Amino acid sequence: MGYLVHCFKSIVGVFVHVFVSACLIGIGISQAIEITNAPQNAVAVTGSSVQLTCEINEQYEGYFEWRVYIGSKTAGQQVYYSPPFTATDTRYHKFEEYGLEINPVEWRDAGKYSCAFLTGDVRATANIIVLG
Question: Where would a tag sit more exposed on the chain, N or C end, judged by fewer CB atoms within 10 A?
Fold first, then answer.
């Protein structure tokens, strides 16, 4: 009896995986997203602008966001998200397809920034150091 239950659970697990994969692909979400050009650490002077890149290997139409981690905040604060492009501050701008531009930079912008594609939890981080 235990073997039959194990087989049934395995079959159900495979079915669920295939079903979810098919649904994700059906709505345009691929499971093979990889970041091909991750954001790099940057140094900026107050009043200037700074840009962080974040590029992936394929077309993506799902949920995407940038978060900033300042001080001891573990969850971070959402800076902008898409679709549609929505910024939490007028100084945050879309840079290229998934990048982030801050203009003008303020001293409070120093911290760790994370771009994330929320299918499969694909993310990359970089630090911004602010001078001045």
Answer: N
